[in-house]
Amino acid sequence: MRDLMQWVGVPEAEQTAVLASPPDEHELAAAVAGLRRDLGSLDSSVTWRAASGTLPLYAYLTVLPEVLAWHAARRVPRAISHATMHQLGSRVRDGGVVRPYWFSRHFRGSLYRLGRLQFDRTARHGEPLLDVHIPGDGHLTPEACDDSLAAARPFFAEHFPAEEYKRAYCTSWLLDPQLADYLPEDSNILRFQRRFTTESVITQADDDIRAFVFDLPSGAELPRRTRLEAAIADHLAEGKHWHHVTGWLPL
Ligand SMILES: CC(C)(COP(=O)(O)OP(=O)(O)OC[C@H]1O[C@@H](n2cnc3c(N)ncnc32)[C@H](O)[C@@H]1OP(=O)(O)O)[C@@H](O)C(=O)NCCC(=O)NCCS
């Protein structure tokens, strides 16, 4: 378990806490069986309780070697598997807790990190589509996004040849057009936004934007240290809302 935690980059202090609180054996066996069943599928059948402690992390790490073998059978380069799975380690906190639903995509073999961006294999009305995600590490430079987007189609054509991905979409607060009222034209966020043709379907994102940008619970005082933080705080203070917006781009 420690070697696996080391490989995905779980911080040392968390590793000790995780090893000190193993989950219930029966719950672990059931979760592992579910993750095995889901491997290769575009959906997840495993459900987690809200307060499931270290159970999701133990279950993910238990199946990790099988998921890596599944990647290897599709000739996914080890460096891409590693970059993909490293997000798990980086998100462990509070004594071994991770946001379990998010990682289902990594462990069913649908999500891959290609440089700056992550791409999740999905489908709508029979059309294979890539769902783009933006991990919160480092700046979102246009060059890094160009490289990731250029890599996506060849990567999936090589490793998942049965599915032809011609389009990608992204549903994120980063695509909220209201950000243009606050951020400079040449900010990375607005340059990223301009790549997409957006849909009018939107959902409220106030709580998510608080979590993604500030990592603070709702109701907490928001700091205004950067232009984005000031924008978010001012907008909410005026009683306005942020939205998740869906945008599309050809690959
Ligand atoms: C997406 C992300 C990498 C963009 O960062 P970036 O490349 O620095 O973005 P920009 O160049 O557009 O930044 C414009 C301004 O906003 C600030 N800013 C951007 N992201 C910020 C963040 N997460 N927290 C605080 N300030 C941020 C920048 O510091 C800059 O302000 P400044 O000029 O006062 O310094 C960053 O917002 C991030 O890590 N977000 C979390 C991940 C996420 O939300 N993913 C999408 C999930 S749906």
Automatic annotation (TrEMBL):
Keyword Nucleus: no
Gene Ontology MF terms: acyltransferase activity
Superkingdom of origin organism: Bacteria
Occurrences of domain GNAT-like C-terminal (ranges): 111-249
Record protein name field: Acyltransferase
N-acyltransferase N-terminal domain sequence ranges: 2-109
InterPro entries (UniProt xref): GNAT_C, NAT_N
Residues in coiled coil: none
Gene3D superfamilies the UniProt entry points to: 3.40.630.120
Keywords: Acyltransferase, Transferase
Organism expressing this protein natively: Kribbella antibiotica
Sequence intervals crossing the membrane: none
